Amino acid sequence: MNHDRTEPIRIGRIDYTNVWPVFHHFEPELLRCAPRLVRAMPAELNRRLREGAIDMAAISSFAYGLNSEDYVLLPNLSVSARGPVQSILLFLKSPLETVLDGGRIAMTTTSATSVNLLKILMEKFHGGQPVYESAEPDLDSMLTHADAALLIGDHAIRASWHHHGYEVIDLSESWYRFTGMWMTFAVWAVRREAAAAMSADIAEIYEALVDSKRRSYGDMRPVIDHALRTVGGTEAYWKGYFEGLNHDFGSGQREGLSLFFKYARELGYLEKDVAIEEWSLAGPVATPAAPPQ
Predict the structure, then answer these.
(1) Rounded to 5°, angle at Cα 103 from 102 and 105
(2) Which of 19, 147, 148, 286 has its CA 20 to 30 A from that of 209?
(3) How many whole angstroms separate alpha carbon 129 and alpha carbon 104?
(4) How far apart are CA 26 and CA 213, in angstroms?
(5) Each residue's pLDDT tens digit, 28-82
(6) Distance between CA 85 and CA 80 in Å, rounded?
(7) Around Cβ 18, how many Cβ atoms within 10 Å?
(8) Could you tell me if 44 and 188 are in contact, meaning their C-beta atoms sit under 8 angstroms apart?
(9) Where in the chain do CATH 3.40.190.10 domains reside?
(10) Is 75 helix (H, G, I), strand (E, B) or coil?
(11) Residue 163, CB half-sphere, CA atoms under 13 Å: how many?
(12) Pick from 66, 34, 31: which is nearest to 50 by CA?
């Protein structure tokens, strides 16, 4: 990518409810740089950013870990939780002991972070060896042949509202119980060449995203109303849901994410250590990879 590039910055947007507080008041058409918004599922945004088909996106944290040498992260933006997140859920048809002892887990393929968090929890913390298989995100069909099913995002939220009788494990709550740390599920990543070539445009977009987040946290009512209209549920549910989320990216979130990358590396799901680098107008600021514990 060269410095005389004339086309607008392409921003990837996940349409899951967990990013709405950052995007709800974000109006790209009002920005001087006139960026183009590209909506897609997390796995698709991960691929497009990796291939350079978009310039920046909210992507799964694990996708950043796989390609961190190509990206920098926007500071103070993430999808994180320190406890239950209510939208990354493992539904158990069989007892957990059965699942851990070679049981089958059907997994949605839409988020690499959730899939690898599940593997870390099952293998490192529970000492199990389940069999993993990919499946479309439909709880009934997933559990036809599997002992457990992983759903994320709005699929998990809707499934949790039904009285299906399955035991449900919130993976974010499990991570916090085992580590006492934040879990960061998504980050805002920018391709390094875009950050270098269009730093003023990146700065304008970043300020607009942070302002949108600030406005949402000042009054979550419009975001809750949007969730009620588009997904369903109750006002009480969505109030609790958004209260359980955090969209900052400070030292606590960085430490938790570094630990997640360290465990993924130990289990062989990442091929290299990951140093977290954040964007600034002065250039990237690095946080070293987590030291061995």
Answers:
(1) 125
(2) 286
(3) 10
(4) 9
(5) 999 999 999 999 887 888 899 999 999 999 999 999 999 999 999 999 999 999 9
(6) 8
(7) 26
(8) no
(9) 10-81+183-287, 88-179
(10) strand
(11) 0
(12) 66
For the chain, first and last CA: distance in Å? 40
- Please give the Cα distance from 276 to 221 (Å, whole number): 33
State the pTM of this model: 0.90
- Options 1.20.1250.20, 3.40.190.10, 3.30.1520.10, 3.40.710.10; CATH for 10-81+183-287 is 3.40.190.10
Coil, helix or strand for 190? strand
Tokens of residue 225, six digits: 């109303």
CA 76 centroid distance within chain? 14
Strand (E) or helix (H) holding 43: helix 42-51
CA angle 245, 62, 159 (to 5 degrees): 50
| 188: pLDDT strictly greater than 70 | yes
Nearest to 45 by CA among 107, 110, 1, 89: 110
Q: Does domain 88-179 have CATH number 3.40.190.10?
A: yes
* Burial group, residue 54, by CB count within 10 angstroms (0-12, 13-18, 19+): buried
Look at the alpha carbons of 95, 101, 105, 109 in this order and tell me if their dihedral is positive or negative. positive
- CA pair distance 62, 109, nearest whole angstrom: 13
d(CA 42, CA 49): 11
Q: What is the pLDDT of residues 230-272, one digit of tens each?
A: 999 999 999 999 999 999 999 999 999 999 999 999 999 999 9
* Neighbour-count burial for 125-139, b at 16+ CB within 10 Å, e otherwise: ebebebeeeebebeb
CA-closest candidate to residue 1, choices 36, 52, 67: 52
